[in-house]
Amino acid sequence: MSLSSGFYLKPAAKTYSERRNMVMAHNVLEAQNITKDFIAVRALNNVSMSVKSGEILGLIGENGAGKSTILKVINGIYVSGTYEGKILVNGEEVHLHSPHDALIKGIGFVPQEINVMEDLTVAENIFVGHLTELKSAFLKPGEIEKRASDFLKHEKINLDVKTRVRMLSIGQKQLLMIARALSWDPHILILDEPTTALAKDDVDNLFKIVREFKAGGRSIIFVTHKLEEIIEITDRVVILRDGANIATYERNQYNENKIVTDMVGRTITSMYPARNVQTGEEVLRVENLTVEHPKIKNKNLIENVSFSLKKNEVLGLVGLVGAGRTETLSALFGEYPIKSGKIFIEGKEVKIKNSGDAIKNGLCLVTEDRKANGLLMLANIKHNIVLTNLKKILNGLFINSKKENNVATTFMSKLSIKAPSYDTMVATLSGGNQQKVVISKSLNTDPKILLLDEPTKGIDVGSKNEIYNLINIMAGSGISIIMVSSELPELLAMCDRFIILAHRTTVGELLKSEATQETVMVKCFA
Questions:
Q1: What are the C-alpha distances in Å from 64 to residues 36, 60, 229, 240, 478?
Q2: Three-class DSSP category at 21
Q3: pTM value surpassing 0.85
Q4: What would the 3-class secondary structure string for 374-406 be?
Q5: Can you say how many angstroms the Cα of residue 525 is from the centroid of all Cα atoms in its chain?
Q6: What is the pLDDT of residues 272-310, one digit of tens each?
Q7: Which one has a higher pLDDT value, 57 or 63?
Q8: H/E element, 220
């Protein structure tokens, strides 16, 4: 399509009609025998995969399996010559030296990490790579917004083109990145964990976009940790483990148990472990908690939120994106000033003005974004864990190295953190092991109440199963837990009781015996 159409902003390498007439068996992209080394680590070992025209290919594997590495090879981030093997586009070998080279070849890439320009508008973010072609100095006022609005309507992506990006939620920023990739009209689109931060409605909308993309004869590589998404939307799945090809299955061969076993290298008999913990007396009560928005005048992040938490209980905070789940946990941990309301711990009212106050009162938070807020990525495992409670490792004013090492060793063993030693840099760990380090940091404060915000976000099914078992162990040891998750089946399986949030306030409560996906969603839309 032409630029003037107002939909796609850059012509593709092939026209829509040419792509539509491609033979289905034609491989539009091939990675042949890719081997990639990082100093002493072999990240990819002779990996091969192909994508057919009009195909949605699933790519799945544990954290550290090599998925991100092969994607970066295909997208030109790891440039030609730094790996062994070949990349072919439409049967011809290509040598990619940058993501721009990949774009020219018709390969669009949406990475897992949020990568947007916060101080520009939605429209400017979409157009930023196209401005030289548009001769932006000669555009009429409002022209960028008009073209971006037409494009988003065409793609059925619900974003306000005039909004400053820093005002968007994480889910909306993810949709913006997808829109920006689509603006180049690629004939191969790589989506790396695209649904991690999306609400169900946004996921449904994304799947419609993906299916329409496929209907035009174009191809998608869809990377996800969510097995149900592989089953729902892909035509074929490639499984990687430890940097090598393990299996490839056509859609008619899909078997969930077999796929999981291939991914993790062991049999998982039950994804969600049974909970049989007896809850006790009330340990936390929140009454009419209201928190002002830190950036928007006369607007509240949450209003009159009220609930209680019992000893040994896993309490689920349920709601749609924007309902106030993360904001409630952040307020309890002292990250926002409390406008009004009361917090009681073990029957005594407490004042929490910062995270230090929260920790002193027995609360600790496992943040939603472990890389941005949960970890010191350039520090090792030991230092990440011990920094949350220096009193444990001090002799007077000095750090006792033996105590420090013992604390790190204890948590690495207790949480089964897989690493050569506690001196291993956190940045080199898989997502699942990084998450275990975050939880270790929290447990090192000896909390009475643990706030878990998306504790399994962006980790593979094997690591999820380990985190679920850990949650049960923590609850059984006397820790009370408040859990937020965008995966409703996860909450229904792991929680004893549910508080429903909508419109930034509490709208209902359900016992485990009352909670189903239907009853929960009815209250979420109340």
A1: 13, 11, 20, 9, 33
A2: coil
A3: no
A4: HCCCCCEHHHHHHCCCHHHHEECCEECHHHHHH
A5: 24
A6: 888 877 888 999 999 999 999 887 888 889 999 999 999
A7: 57
A8: strand 219-223
